[in-house]
Amino acid sequence: MSEIRTNSQDPVRRVAAIDVGSNSTHMLIVETSRGGGFQVLESMKEQTRLAADIDERLMLDSNALNKMVSVLKRMREVAEKHKAVVRCIATHPLREARNGAEFAARLSTRSGVLVEIVSGQEEARLVSLGVRLGLPIASQSTLIVDVGGGSAEIILCQWDEVRFATSLKLGAVRLTQKFLASDPFSARGLKELEDYVVSRLEPVSGEIKRFGFDAAVASSGTVKALKSLAMGMHGEAVPAAFHGTTLKCEDLFEICEVLFGNRSLQERKMLPRMDPKRADIIVAGAMVLKVLAKLANVQSFTLSTTALREGILVDTLAREETWLRGDSRDVRWQSVKEFGAKHRIDEPHAFHIASLTMALFDSLAETRGFSGQWRELLRCAAYLHESGRFVNVTGHHKHAHYLVRNSSLMGFSQRELEIIATLIRFHRKRAPRTDENCMENFDPDDLQRVTKLSSLLRLAVSMDRGRLGRVRQVKLAAPRGGKILLTIFASASSDAGIEIYELNCEKAPFERAFGVSLEVRVEEYRV
């Protein structure tokens, strides 16, 4: 595995990355070194087949929940043995299930592992991070494809940046259930599968051709199984590791013909070097790679055994290096700014509100118990608080809530997007209540944090309602005797009357959230 660079002054850390996928659940535990690399301490895999547990109503039931609770508890115990920080990402099955958010919340509570659902685009970005970690492709234009159980991620990277990323419902488990459920499968089912895959990949192939690529990389168990079959067909010895090896597309097409001709599961299991656990879904996965190769004119795929889990590790460590340290180059902050520009926010006003909000957060003693993640989610909410005006000025807090919650902002999990959206939703009008529909998937601790932080955002917004920038700095003192002092530093203390009036109208939610009485004092701002 390639080395990931971290700050050499940072202490040694241990991180466990868990990937809850459609076909299996994996965990990778690594230890970072002061020199900037990391070493794998342990890996685990459980074939959980969560996509198969989604019923015709697109619901996951209690049996699936119990199964996943058991798996995540075991993984958590192993991570705790290594004293590793755990980050768990859920992908297609929880995105697909109608009760996915509720399932993730219950799974988090019962397993003790916070489960984050990520969008398809975010999954694609994480896959690209993992692939770029393991292969020297930074200087190339590279096509990356990862065929999972529920979805296929297709990414185009140029000069170590993601230029195009999409997630399609072309997972091997999903397609098998839809077209090849019978055993043996029918010729008609195979033809319908091919037509379906072609219809979904043709638009993507147009984008790929528009950008162009120098090399193609395939990750996931599907391509490893196909490479193993190709080597078995030619009587070649299987290498100690598949990472960095090549699957020529002429061999891929030949293997596809063999697979498509062996329609029964038992026949496929008898093929040389066939992984029996993958024999039922390999046909659908092979079809996706075959069609993509033909449409995009791929000559060969380089195999990568680093993908989503390694991407989670890279992203988790990068958060500490950039986003959680306020680095404006980070992908999350860049995506927030791009979202703001797309929705034509008043950028100077947005920056000013974000600055006031962060000053309130940083000066309030009670927020010191909040993690850096919560600080940055609040900063994003402050910056985007007016993005709903793009739809309509009236009710813009509700419009912004919808836009952000349903966005695909790079670098954010679904839970993080829901937190940002909810903070924005309650930056004006009525204060949040615990029975709000938009907060039903938050646990009691998150409900309390959202209530408190939204009250800080309300205070900040109230102090620049007229967009005049009169309030230059703010500071909250330590509470005494049930009271807390807010000092406003204004460009001219005599001109802050409107700001004080607006502030007094908005202080009640803050007082309720923090259980204090707020007093306001104005001082003249001095450079």
How large is the share of residues in beta strands?
A: 15-25%
Helix count equals 18
CATH class of the largest domain: Mainly Alpha
What's the alpha carbon Rg, rounded to whole Å? 26 Å
Count every beta strand, where a strand is a DSSP E run of 2 or more residues.
14
Question: What would you call the structural class?
Answer: alpha/beta
Globally, the shape reads: elongated
User: Overall mean pLDDT score?
Assistant: 89
Strand order of the largest sheet: 8-7-6-9-11-10
Stretches where pLDDT is under 50 for at least 5 consecutive residues are: 1-9
* CATH homologous superfamily annotation of the largest domain: Hypothetical protein af1432
- N-to-C terminal Cα separation, in Å? 52 Å
CATH topology of the largest domain: Hypothetical protein af1432
